[in-house]
Each structure stands twice: as C-alpha cells, then as structure tokens.
From TrEMBL:
InterPro entries noted in UniProt: Methyltransf_25, SAM-dependent_MTases_sf
Methyltransferase domain residues: 52-143
Protein name: Methyltransferase domain-containing protein
Pfam families, alphabetized: Methyltransf_25 (PF13649)
Organism: Scytonema hofmannii PCC 7110
Amino acid sequence: MNNNDISLRYRDGVSYDRYQSQRSKVGRTTTQNQDADFYSHLADGLGKNLSVLLAGGGTGRIAKPLIEHGHRPTILDNSLDMLDQARKKFPVLELIQADIRSFDLERNFELIVAHFDLLNHLLTLEDVESCFHCFRNHLASNGRFAFDVVNPNLGFFLSCLDRGKMFDSAYHDPYGNGSIVVTQIRDYDYSRQVLKLRKHYRYIDLDKEIIEDIEFRCYGPQELIALLKYNGFDVEQLYGDFQRGNFSSDSKKIIVVCQKK
C-alpha cells in the first residue's frame, strides 16, 4: 500500500509515540497501559509462551508487557514508519508490514489482539468481513481473538454535538521544530455511523499548520456480536473496561474476547 494511504499520524513512529505519550499525560487517552496490562494478563490465562499476533501493533507499546510475561508477540502493521520505531525498541521482534484486511502468514497464533480502537478504522462491511476472515484463518483452534473499540453511547453522541475546536494535545516536535498544539473538530455522519475528525497540528514556533481529516466507523455492541457470529466467531466475554468490569450502556469501551466457532 502507498504511504499516502496511511493516516498522517501513523507515518512517523517517533512523532506518534511523542503525541500519544503527551495525550496520556493530559488525560486525553486514559486507557493506555490499562489495555497493555489487560491483554498481557489475558495471554497469561491462556498459557505460557503464547504466540501472539498484534494486529495494528504500531510501535510496540502492547508488545512490551507480553515479552516481559514470557510470550512471543509478532507485530503486524501497515505503516513501515511505525514498524521502524518498533524495531528500535525491540530489535529481535518479528515485524510484518501488511494490511489487516488481506494478509496470509501461513501459520496460526494462539492469541490475536486488535487493540486501541483498530477496528474503528474499518469503514465498510467489506473491510470488516475481510479483516475477520484473515483473523479467523490465522487463529489456532483453541485460540482467542480479542479487541477493543469505542462504545458509541449517549455521552459519545452528545460530545459530537459540540462542533467547535477542542484541545487534543500539545507536545514538542521530536525533530526540533518546537511546540505543536493539536486541536480537533468533531462531526458525526449518522447515515454511515462514521465519526469525522478534523485535526489541526499547529507548529507554534514556525507559524505553520497541518490539517488532517480522519474517519472512524462506530460499531454498537449488538452489531459487533452479530458481525462476529456471521463471520465464524463466538463471543466468550464482553467487558466495559480494562479492569474486566461488566459492559453497560455507560461504558466508554467495548472489549470483546471470542473464539472460533
């Protein structure tokens, strides 16, 4: 896939790590590290020395605790720049550049993880079914497929009504271009179930701004259960947070653990 098809924020692993780290510090991303702990403990419950496929694994944030717990993660990502950053952190880790909708590794994994809202990037039914087909083909017979997505509850929709520019993050550019302030404008397309974000990256010292449009497909819990069922999976657990709390309408996340039928 051409690099231009990859979202701006995923083209540079160094900047991505800096951006996400700062978002976590200012409370814009509250689940980082919680999700890493959740998936590493999920692997522990399935056995020792597990083969784990991290779909959309990026720069390897989720890989670290899995390695520390004695498992064998493989990172699959579509962005070579994200994988380059992962290579700097984990020189011996297996890294694979591929699209989650169309890959064939000719082997199975005991756990497949699609973390940090990865599936929200799949905008069409064809995309989702192609992705699930690949995951099912690469899942061991007694393995688990686990993922998390945003829960589009009432609070989520109310936040979409505020279409003014909202603060997202601020960080220092890792390449010496000074401070970057990130703001965003949200809108929601109900006909497509797509959240539309317009992100503004303002380089304060350079008086320069880059604008990027990003789309996220929102999936409801019952919709996900149906999609999984008709694509060969049975839902084993449905959680509302990374502490394994029960899922409810107020949950900010939908966290699913499933098996092959």
